[in-house]
């Protein structure tokens, strides 16, 4: 058999084999994005080697006797390059979703300039899923976009003056079963001057009241029984007014508050002991209907 015929037969057989590899590689890349999942014979290096053999065979077979070596070398180089290209992984790079935190977005949903669903109140829950639109900035919400209500009393945490109400207890608009004693709201001795610690406590009270604009409150001052009735009445009134004035300075509208001094009229403990007198010297917050 002549040299040219033998080379062409080998080359033809290899071409058929390489075509099969390339075809299999193309199908595999369409089914899997990971090149490690491809068969060994689909690797570009293997296809390049096969292509080199094909090209070399064809180059040798089609060259004259004087340039067999250069023809084979040229054919091998060209074949290796073509074989590698045929088996290259053409799987497209996965495109990251533009708004991954929103998941699958239904058709027709209003989007912003970046193509993400609108979130008008900025709580991280898009408008089309938000069951509580208009949540104030910074308020923590659940998956439905509604403010958290840790004690499930119907008053969200950011408005709740009594955040740990037992389950099933009926509460008012402040989230409290009854009037609430403002713990640690104390005054300088024999005056209506708030202590610095009392001001810190009232800052939190004011924040929740500002977030609850439809509620009016009664601020009620109480004293122990030491001193005259009239003196205690006046002192409790001044202390209640001092609390109201401080809350107003923190943004609570003055017309939403009333200050009432009860003096020693409504004790909650015995005035015969220091502990009892301490409990009686208090300021309470209640809903004002």
TrEMBL record:
Record key words, sorted: Cell outer membrane, Membrane, Signal
Segments forming domain OmpA-like: 174-289
Signal peptide as annotated in the record: 1-24
Biased composition (Basic and acidic residues): 274-289
Molecular functions per Gene Ontology: calcium ion binding
Pfam family for this entry, one: OmpA
GO cellular component assignments: cell outer membrane
Subcellular location: Cell outer membrane
Family annotation (SUPFAM superfamilies): OmpA-like (SSF103088), TSP type-3 repeat (SSF103647)
Tree of life domain: Bacteria
InterPro entries registered for this protein in UniProt: Bact_OuterMem_StrucFunc (IPR050330), OMP_bac (IPR006664), OmpA-like (IPR006665), OMPA-like_CS (IPR006690), OmpA-like_sf (IPR036737), Thrombospondin_3-like_rpt (IPR003367), TSP_type-3_rpt (IPR028974)
Renumbered residue ranges of the record's region Disordered: 263-289
One GO BP: cell adhesion
Name used for this protein in its record: OmpA family protein
Species whose genome carries this gene: Vreelandella titanicae
């Amino acid at each position: 058999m002549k040299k040219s015929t033998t080379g062409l037969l080998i080359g033809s057989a290899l071409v058929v084999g390489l075509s099969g590899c390339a075809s299999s590689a193309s199908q595999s890349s369409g089914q899997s994005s990971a090149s490690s999942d491809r068969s060994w014979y689909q690797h570009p290096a293997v296809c390049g080697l096969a292509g080199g053999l094909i090209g070399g065979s064809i180059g040798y077979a089609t060259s004259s006797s004087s340039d067999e070596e250069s023809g084979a070398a040229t054919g091998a180089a060209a074949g290796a390059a073509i074989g590698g290209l045929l088996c290259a992984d053409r799987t497209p790079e996965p495109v990251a979703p533009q708004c991954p935190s929103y998941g699958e977005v239904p058709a027709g949903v209003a989007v912003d300039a970046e193509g993400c669903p609108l979130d008008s109140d900025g709580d991280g829950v898009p408008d089309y899923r938000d069951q509580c639109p208009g949540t104030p900035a910074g308020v923590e919400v659940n998956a439905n976009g509604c403010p958290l209500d840790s004690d499930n009393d119907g008053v969200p945490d950011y408005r709740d003056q009594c955040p740990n109400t037992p389950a099933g207890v009926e509460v008012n608009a402040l989230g409290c079963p009854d009037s609430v004693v403002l713990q640690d709201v104390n005054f300088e001795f024999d005056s209506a001057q708030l202590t610095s610690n009392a001001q810190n406590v009232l800052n939190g009270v004011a924040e929740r009241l500002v977030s609850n604009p439809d509620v009016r409150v009664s601020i009620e001052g109480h004293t122990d029984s030491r001193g005259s009735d009239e003196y205690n009445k006046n002192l409790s009134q001044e202390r209640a007014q001092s609390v109201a004035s401080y809350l107003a300075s923190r943004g609570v509208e003055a017309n939403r508050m009333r200050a009432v001094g009860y003096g020693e009229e409504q004790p909650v403990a015995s005035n015969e002991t220091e502990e009892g007198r301490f409990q009686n010297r208090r300021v309470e917050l209640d809903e004002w209907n």
